Amino acid sequence: MAHRRLRHVVLLRFRRDASDAAKRALREGLAGLPAQIPELRRYQVGDDLGLVEGNFDFAIVAEVDDPEAFRAYVDHPAHQEVVAQRIRPILEERVAVQYLVD
Fold this sequence. Notes:
This protein has helices spanning 20-31, 33-36, 67-75, 77-87; strands at 5-14, 42-47, 58-64, 91-101. The chain is an alpha+beta fold. Strands 2-3-1-4 form a 4-stranded antiparallel sheet.
């Protein structure tokens, strides 16, 4: 049986008053996380394309080896800083799910 990884998917909806500069800073902060957090095996982020009304604005997809690696990622100081300094100030709504993938 192939090794299964844990996938963490987060969708963000930005506040209406979120500036382009703040959104750019968010992207830049997230882009730096894989170099700082060794538990991340795969990490992708992206803006919604606007093809369907009502979609969230932004997606984050992270893959780690197991629940312990997920906890290390979530608790890592670099991740916590991005959340506190770049996500929360512009966040309207967040949803997330974790599941196993082959």
